Amino acid sequence: MTINRRDLLTASAGLAAAAGLGRFGIGPAFAQGAEPAYKPEEGASLRVLRWTPFVQGDEDAWLANTKKFTEATGVQVRVDKESWEDIRPKAAVAANVGSGPDIVLCWFDDAHQYPDKLADLTDLGTYLGGKYGGWYDGLKGYATREGKFIALPLAAIGNAICYRDSHVKAAGFNEFPKDTAGFLELCKALKAKGTPAGFPHGKAVGDGNNYAHWLLWSHGGKMVDESGKVTINSPETIASIKYAKSLYETFIPGTESWLDINNNRAFLAGQVSLTANGVSLYYAAKKDAKLKDLAADIRTVNFPVGPVGQKVELHQTTSALLFKHSKYPEAAKAYLKFMYEEPQMNAWISGSSAYCCQPLKAFAANPVWKADPIHEPYSHASETLRPNGYAGPLGYASAGVMADYVLVDMYAVAVTGQMSPEDAAAQAEKRANRYYRV
Known about the structure:
One of its GO terms (cellular component) is periplasmic space. The chain is α+β, with helices and mostly antiparallel strands. The chain has two domains: 5-158 and 315-384, 3-Layer(aba) Sandwich (D-Maltodextrin-Binding Protein, domain 2); 160-314 and 404-433, Periplasmic binding protein-like II (D-Maltodextrin-Binding Protein, domain 2), CATH 3.40.190.10. 40% of the residues lie in helices and 12% in strands. Helix 17 packs antiparallel against helix 18. The longest helix has 18 residues, at 56-73.
């Protein structure tokens, strides 16, 4: 399909997106409001800041779509990338000084830290939601505030347990445990066999937060209640810390300093047999001829259910935000619209090889989710994720608590013996109350 400047800029053409829907079995377009038309400013150019990819196909597809946009509009787009840990501070600096990238692919509820610095994307968000079956609620919550889109939900990066099947069986488990009690016994058995587990207790934006929130929620704990009152210092939280300490005793040494890349490296080096990660871990093994046997041995599964009795997981979420300081807001909105339309969005999801779970429900029909059994635990990430601000509202406080690693640090100081579980929970309560002033 050829896309020219006229197709992109006129409302009636709509990027010819509806014509491509049948390609992935999505069917006809959903009912929608008026399609916004954006005319890039004369001489416009854009800067986009995104996170460094763990699956190369993600970046390749993103850049290919960007190139198509430039060819259609003449707008040059520079795409920069930073490590996962550096995206948050870089975006915050741009917001505070009023210059820098036009668009940032941010994490979790970061957009709620500086909503007054962001362009209103409500017309675009409403149009896309109406056309493509609606946004997933969890992702939408991260990108909306007071009924307006302060960003566009982009993806949930699914997090699941990755393990060596032969090592789990050698430890005496023919099936992967479905509950936290059985999971602890598995980790003990793996350590005894010299093939231990390992989960990050360091300030890892993705894996560290995903693990810490699962520990808390699986035991019935929560940072705040529905009103935003801090409730982290609870019997349920202390029980989760004690459980985390027992797990930590089975881990490979040094996980308290792990960032998002470290568990990948440890698993691929054969130092651990079990961790939690995106599907990127599987593909990193597959593309290395020396790791052929390891790749064939990998299995994936969702986190076990804890005393709370239901699956409760945090998945890495990313949204696209547009700063008000952009000199070319029409060009930026045209770019975002282009990237979210069916041909580009499905190409990106496919290129990501199940790493990025769709923000809009219509794209759940993408065949990538059925392409490999390893993908299955990641396929519902957008649907099942629980926002990190649970059970209170998302906003400055929830964003601040996560950015300050309050929950991650609570577990780290306790499992390493720096504090008792009770003191760690009390410290987390004190730190959280600095943000939740109710």
